[in-house]
Amino acid sequence: MSPPLSPVRTRNAAATRTAILEAARRRFAHEGYDQTGLRDIASDAGVDAALISRYFGGKEELFEEVLTCGPNIAEFLDGDRDSFGERVAQMLAVEPMREEKFELFLIMLRSASSPKAAEAIRRHSHDAFYQPLETWLGGDDAAVRARLLSCVMMGATMNRVIHEDYLLDGQQRQELCEALARTLDNYVSGPV
Amino acid sequence: MSPPLSPVRTRNAAATRTAILEAARRRFAHEGYDQTGLRDIASDAGVDAALISRYFGGKEELFEEVLTCGPNIAEFLDGDRDSFGERVAQMLAVEPMREEKFELFLIMLRSASSPKAAEAIRRHSHDAFYQPLETWLGGDDAAVRARLLSCVMMGATMNRVIHEDYLLDGQQRQELCEALARTLDNYVSGPV
DNA sequence: CCTAGAAGTCACCAACTGATGACATGGCCC
DNA sequence: GGGCCATGTCATCAGTTGGTGACTTCTAGG
């Protein structure tokens, strides 16, 4: 599927670990937990599959490690508060989905139905998404606002995953982006 | 998992087909395509697993049949246009998720990551969700409005699936419901 | 009552998965 | 240079899955 990430790597445990983690993250994001086999990850990382179980304990532990060492919501929270909606909407509706920013969403969406992965996702999506978002929002109804934001972000990603944007042309995507931005900004600072 | 749906059924092909379809729909909705085995469905339907392949051709064909014979968006489109937001938001945020109305969403969310099921989902979600919704909305920007509605509906369902509502209490859920209703109604008839 | 064929069951297959223990190999320190 | 241990590979296992063909059993029609 992918070219090897670290072409030169000679018996360097740390580098091998990283290569496995990166390969796993990409696989989990683009195919989901169930559809990703240890042999796939190993092949991408240029490593024998047995090594993964030895390094991480097993597939589930690898998945947890991928979640905890990966990107989180902080990226979206950086920057001007007033342009939050526009920044996020741009990513959700316009930017190509292969972006790394998407990986967290994709992993959650594509793996949430696997019982083995569900608990890790639930925990991580709370700790590395909801909680920071809620704190960033502040105020009494931060929890509800965070949920509303999450609904739109998740739903927009889900729709792109299912339909791969076949249904909307560039113009419509632009309109979608603007509408999403308004909704998001409203959830951030408007009346709930 | 579930009690047999048709306790008395003696060599009645049509009834057996229906029993299999119902069992499959529930399984696919609550566990997803990958996690559901033909043996699980057969067990729920009180039938031998071999019968499923013989009746439907295979798991993929069964899945397609479940989608096409199941509920669609029409249920949400019935009733007063002005109360659309409230009705849908009520379902999304308040009503128990075991409701049959949810099954279409759950099937899509929980099975979208399976390549075998993805194409059927894409097609069905277009034919039995987007298209009717777009027609119902009407107007030049119906496609964009349909997408916006879909984002919120999908996202809200996704969040409930992941977090099972642990994060919100009754009061917050009520606030969430009202906010969702406003957003949905705005997408239906407000300025996009 | 009896048989033909539908309805349902059983045993089994090949493919795949995650995992494990035995083995090979290369780099580092003395 | 030589041995040791971390690093990596190989063969293989047990479990599960979807699928298939041969078999049994029950019902309907004569």
Structural class of chain A: mainly alpha
Q: What form of chain A results from the Cα inertia axes? A: globular
What's the assembly state of these chains?
Answer: homodimer
Q: What's the Cα radius of gyration of chain A?
A: 18 Å
Largest interface here, residues on each chain?
A-B, 46 and 46 residues
Give the beta-strand count of chain A: 0
The tally of helices of chain A reads 10
Note the run of SSEs of chain A as H and E: HHHHHHHHHH
Strand residue content of chain A = under 5%
Overall mean pLDDT of chain A = 92
Q: Spans of chain A with pLDDT under 50 lasting ≥5 residues?
A: 1-7
Q: Please estimate the helix content of chain A.
A: over 70%
Largest sheet of chain A: none
Q: Into how many domains do the coordinates of chain A divide?
A: 2
Instruction: Tell me the distance between the termini of chain A.
Output: 44 Å
Short description:
Chain A is mainly α and 192 residues long.
How does this structure look, described?
The structure is a homodimer of 192-residue chains. Helix content of chain A is 72%, strand content 0%. With 192 residues, chain A is mainly α. The first copy, chain A, folds into 2 domains: 57 residues, Arc Repressor Mutant, subunit A (Orthogonal Bundle); 116 residues, no CATH class. The radius of gyration of chain A is 18 Å and the shape is globular. At the A-B interface, helix 1, helix 7, helix 8, helix 9 and helix 10 of A face helix 1, helix 7, helix 8, helix 9 and helix 10 of B. Chain A binds a DNA duplex (30 and 30 nucleotides) through helix 3.
